[in-house]
Batch of 4 targets.
Target 1
Amino acid sequence: MTAYDELMQFQRETEALGQIAGRLGWDQETMMPQGATPQRAEEHGAMANILHARRIDPRVGDWLQTAEALDDVAAANLRHIKRDFERTAKVPATLAAELAKTTSLAHRVWAQARADEDVAAFLPILQKVVALRREEASAVAGNADPYDALLDDYESGATGASLGAMFAALRPRLVALRSAILDQPAPQTLSGDFDEVAQLALSEKLALAFGYDVGHGRIDKAVHPFSSGSGLDVRITTRTSLTDPFNCFYSTIHEVGHAAYEQGIDAAHLLTPLGRGVSMGVHESQSRIYENQLGRSRAFTGWLYGQMRDQFGDFGIADEDAFYATVNRVSDGFIRTEADEVQYNLHVLLRFDLERALMSGDLAVNDLEAAWNDRFAADFGYAIDKPSNGVLQDVHWSEGLFGYFPTYTLGNVYAGCLHVALRDAVPGLDDDLAQGDTSKATGWLRENLQQFGGLRTPVETIAHATVAVPDEGPLLDYLEDKFRGIYGL
């Protein structure tokens, strides 16, 4: 075998072990008994040790020096492996294992603290997570910005400065649109209770409508919905609320967007670096365009209205137009994952600024709750009422995912660009969406983006699909056009 063949054989085993590690995380969120936490933390640490050792195996360095890229696929595989090798080599194995173990423990501490509304119970282990991630970021960054090193884990090529500039361009128009909308009468809300079993049944129907392959996936419940896995085993979770079925339905559609990306990647890339989504920003572009531009469109909500009437009977909304306004209702709220399209990115920008301050040392962990509450009041005009609606609402920091939050807004920006290209490529799309048929839209995304997995860089991936360099303009134009129409502005 050539050096490239030997390297890829070794890499396939590493990728397979990474999938197993991911399955441990899925099980922890969905099936694992509460008392298993200490043992699972040890298991996560052991897997992290194994994966770290494989990623810096001296043979990988030797193979990289002699392997030849005979085509674009080989060149992309080598690029990913080299980046991972060089990055991992900078992080001591003991630190990688300690991070895995600590974040596994922190997740359970966070979940209990959230349930108990007890920030103080979470802060000591968060302090440890922050310290470990700072240590890792410093090791990787060298003389560069440590936060950029964390960002690079999720969005290769992005920097705090570049995202900060993009977010600064987003903020004024978002704030102005929000202000104009909230001066108008609000659409109706749903009334009554919605049976959980019926919600989950319609949730599965929505997953199938958006192309989720349940032959190679599962739908389970979790406190914080997520998607995991790739290739032939891709799993999603959702959640239910007795009075808010949209929470279930749109969480499902969102996670199906992530899952469809993984399931849509060319099977030839299975268990290779190209066999998974190229970045979290690109991943989020798929979940957001599925959930918002398609799932919350006037055409698709008209179909969903009929499905809900069949499932639940009369729920207080008179017709499809009123239902479309209800689905897209802009209103005050604390929870990022439940936020409307207009305000969602303001939630993300808050987190982006706070975590940059945490990583730089400008903000102490013990001051995080006060900083969160002050920023929220400034941005949204009202006070946080309890920690689970504030600093304890998101799982990410307990898992050490610093640098992850900004990819949510970047995904919205990418989705805005993709939506323009999709509408140009598929005229008459609304006729299909009105019948609950998303196949032309999801097919276009699979053909132009999803199938390539990690073949290109994140920005190149979006530019290939849209034939344009991504920027925030299309997202802002879409939001203003949509919500000015709904609210008669």
Note: The first strand starts at residue 217 and ends at 221.
Target 2
Amino acid sequence: MQLDRYDKHILALLQNNARLSNQELAEKIGLSPSPCLRRVKRLEESGLIDGYRAVLNARALGLKLMAFIHISMDRHTPERFENFESHVAGIAEVLECHLITGQEADYLLKVIVEDMDGFQRLLLEKITRIEGVSGVHSSFVMKSPVNSTAMPL
């Protein structure tokens, strides 16, 4: 899909604040409400806008420990990977799961828990019990100077 300056402006504004009303969005990009709404609908239908979410404050929820976990698998088969991926998709503490290259690990997980006890429970009761997990190496986040969900346009 070819994006013009209006489309890019809409996407930039919605990435920053998805609660903008169509009227506010139209005013900010310099279009009337009807064509603005048509553009937003087209961006949604094309799949460029994947959804709308509220960004929650982890600390306010008592989730103070974020970690990245490198996971190694015992066998590199589609069945092993599918099994692992389906299991981690059901673990609420897993924020992201990536199949990676260039490391000794096969997967990189981004997880969030309340504290070290919560991390231990997650690791010992959930992640290491998944069939095929042969190695786990963890790194704990001390600070996140850049933390964005906005895509470069």
Note: The chain has two domains: 5-46, 59-140.
Target 3
Amino acid sequence: MVFSSRLISARRFATSAIRRDGGPQMPGDNLPFDINNRYKLTVYFILFFGSGLVTPFLAVRHQLLKK
């Protein structure tokens, strides 16, 4: 009896998970930014990674110019 109730609950979970899926999605639909415009994406990448690379240099410059 316990086994059959586990099987039924597992079946309900599986069908509800399939139902919530929402159908087929294109690659990149779950990203927080648009990947269809390559120039906008390039600018975003340069700004994002560039800000991380330039921060230590700006901090050193600030410390050297401080009196």
Note: Residues 38-65 form the longest helix (28 residues).
Target 4
Amino acid sequence: MTDVDLFRLFASLMLLLLAAHLMGRLFARLRQPPVIGEITGGLLLGPSLFGLLAPGAQGWLFPPTGPAATGLALVYQLGVLLLMFLAGLQMRAVFSRHDGRAVVLIAVVGMVIPFGCGLLLVRVVDLSSVVGEAGDHTALTLVIACAVAITSIPVISRIMMDLGIAGTSFARVVLSVAVLEDIVLNVVIAVALGMVGGGPHDAFGAPALLGVGTGDGAIAYHALVSVVFFGLTAGVGTLLRRRTAARPDVPAAGPGPTAGRPEAGERPGAGVQVAVQVAVVLGAGGTCVFLGITPMYGAFLVGLMTSWSRGAGEPDPMAAVRGFATGFFIPVYFAIVGLKLDLVHAFDPLLTVAFTAFACVVKAASVYLGARWAGRPRAGALNLAVAMNARGGPGIVLATLAYDARIINATLFTTLVLTAVITSLMAGGWLESAIRRGLLPRDGDEERPPVADRTDKIPAGAR
């Protein structure tokens, strides 16, 4: 790497990091999801604004190829790995056994119907104009179905935390349903991405050794490998959980010259925990690459099972890893997502409006149906339907992974990202309005029956 390339890499990372944090903080002050601000920061530096005003400077600072582009791509990949690792950790932390019947019914109905409608959409509407260079229509079908059905845990949990309802039964149901949905959909996403990873330019690992090609054989292989990898990871997580539960607690190293260098029997310090966690995430990602499935799937499962295997009283690895992940890698990742958006040349307003409306109606209607089937009142079911419609981070990750794998083109990539952004903003605005109208209780207000559960007190127009 020459000095010029090194300068461009440092300058581009600095600008992306500053833009992501500044815009993220601005959006947080406006009571909007910071992730949308981070994407906006990258959007301002991309072809939609900077490239429009100074195309030569923008192209020199953010080249599409070369060592500087490779450096940005590496940070981008590490960002998505850490994001999915933290998402897995958060899923286990928020899962609740309360309202089990309602959670299962809402999850099944709210996932199966949108997924099926997404499959039907591809058959009814000609989407050949948005298929990517990979030319795999089956993978495109799975991606669109997941984009319709997916729900964002990080964004909706942040919205509910900001609104002061994160500790309510409503929040527990929303997050528990989202956990079940996203675990299943991540398996489907891994299959879709794996199907386009075995071509002649990417012949590597188990698919190449086994001669896995395309068609039904590729679908069966990647589905089987994804499920088996999930089962093995779950088995390891369960085993570690039993071992740590049986291990007696040992006090951490106290202050002194040997602090941070644990003796025999003492638990390692935070620095060692971070190193071990990141090494496991990278190892799982590498294993997935060898198996022909997306590395983000391995990072997600490691996060899920790490939280599962953590014993009582042990420090939370999320706290150790979250600092540098959310301070640098994840904001830069979302800024690069915004950098890739081209609202000048790759934006189809009609496609964006039509797909967003379709996804919103199908997802919200199915969640509402599942909630009513589970015995929820009309106002409560409506609040659940809007909250579960937020696609946020997972929707954006799905779009970027599919775009990087050449399953979708730039136009559909822009549509999917904007759909995730719009639905997240809609969810935040709706829930804030529901709280003002007394249709949702805040934390600590559930000792009396929530207003939303007393249908006789609900205004007629809200029913």
Note: The chain has a mean pLDDT of 80.
